[in-house]
């Protein structure tokens, strides 16, 4: 991409939202919405108020049954940069790939329906990509807020700033906050966009694939307020995220060794028991089961769902220790006393 394709930050700041737009905008902003009415108005408004104004704003409603479409169309009626796509529910990954295909601009920016951008977010990111043509993706640090816009305390480490820092941690955790990113559209398309098998961790899998073909970094400024609340997807699907992340790391190592990624064309990830065969490496199933099971014991949803069979398998493989015994009581508190009994019996059989 040549620098001339990206206008200088602020060059369109004075442009009226309903003024005649360039044929090709500088940035395509992509937002997928599913029953997001509670926070959607503020999220859209924060994009409309950006100091860098040369963008199209694609809002895809993924079959909402609340007022999300009405809110999006209300904003679209006031701002010609907004294009609303409304259809039946197909899920987040299908929506993200549809938005990526529809994007007309050379830069592709993500935005979630429950977060809030700082006014200079796009200007800062466009400036970074203009100054660093070897970088394909730029994220930012975030400010954590709760459902009432109050500060939300987390103990998560800051996202890495430089590409060297990204590479140092990318096999352990995600180096970018998905709703903060701006990327060169064609690079994301070239690696295949979002892979459907990695449901609930599609972003981490994408960063792992992009890290092999371009540089990723973060601006160490809190240019987006990231919202935490009880109903958000990341809370409901923590176990699926943990398992998907573990498989994504295996696929990354395969690619690093020059071997094909066996998950590339899968519609869903293989069961843990199949990993030895899928990756042609004995012992992987046990390794991943033990790793994911240890992380799942703190999640109510995981222990009431698919995480529990993995935990029992981990114990049968030899897993033991005080934290697993404490999980027996945790299961009672989670409302699954029969599972607490099963775990206690499995642990006793190990003694």
From TrEMBL:
Keywords: Glycosyltransferase, Transferase. InterPro entries: Glyco_trans_2-like, Glycosyltransf_2, Nucleotide-diphossugar_trans. Pfam families: Glycos_transf_2. It comes from Novosphingobium subterraneum. Belongs to the glycosyltransferase 2 family. The keyword Glycosyltransferase applies. Coiled coil: none annotated. SUPFAM superfamilies: Nucleotide-diphospho-sugar transferases (SSF53448). PANTHER family: GLYCOSYLTRANSFERASE, GLYCOSYLTRANSFERASE EPSE-RELATED. The keyword Cytoplasm does not apply. This is Family 2 glycosyl transferase.
């Amino acid at each position: 991409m040549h620098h001339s394709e990206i206008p200088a930050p602020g060059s369109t700041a004075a442009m009226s939202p309903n003024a005649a737009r360039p044929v090709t905008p500088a940035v395509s902003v992509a937002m997928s919405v599913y029953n997001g009415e509670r926070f959607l108005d503020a999220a859209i408004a924060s994009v409309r108020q950006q100091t860098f104004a040369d963008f199209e704003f694609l809002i895809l409603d993924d079959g909402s049954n609340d007022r999300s479409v009405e809110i999006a169309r209300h904003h679209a009626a006031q701002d010609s940069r907004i294009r609303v796509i409304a259809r039946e529910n197909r899920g987040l990954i299908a929506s993200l790939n549809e938005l990526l295909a529809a994007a007309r601009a050379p830069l592709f920016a993500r935005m979630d329906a429950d977060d809030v951008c700082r006014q200079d977010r796009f200007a800062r990111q466009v400036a970074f990509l203009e100054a660093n043509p070897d970088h394909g993706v730029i994220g930012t640090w975030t400010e954590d807020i709760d459902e009432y816009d109050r500060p939300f305390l987390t103990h998560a480490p800051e996202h890495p700033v430089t590409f060297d820092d990204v590479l140092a941690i990318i096999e352990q955790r995600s180096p970018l906050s998905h709703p903060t990113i701006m990327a060169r559209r064609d690079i994301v398309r070239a690696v295949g966009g979002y892979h459907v098998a990695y449901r609930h961790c599609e972003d981490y899998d994408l960063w792992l694939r992009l890290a092999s073909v371009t540089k990723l970094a973060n601006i160490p400024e809190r240019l987006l307020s990231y919202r935490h609340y009880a109903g958000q997807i990341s809370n409901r699907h923590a176990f699926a995220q943990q398992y998907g992340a573990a498989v994504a790391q295996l696929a990354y190592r395969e690619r690093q060794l020059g071997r094909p990624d066996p998950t590339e064309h899968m519609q869903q990830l293989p069961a843990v028991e199949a990993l030895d065969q899928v990756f042609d490496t004995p012992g992987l199933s046990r390794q991943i089961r033990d790793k994911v099971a240890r992380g799942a014991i703190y999640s109510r949803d995981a222990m009431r769902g698919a995480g529990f069979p993995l935990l029992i398998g981990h114990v049968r493989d030899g897993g033991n220790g005080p934290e697993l015994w404490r999980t027996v009581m945790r299961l009672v508190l989670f409302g699954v006393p029969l599972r607490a009994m099963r775990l206690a019996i499995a642990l006793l059989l190990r003694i």
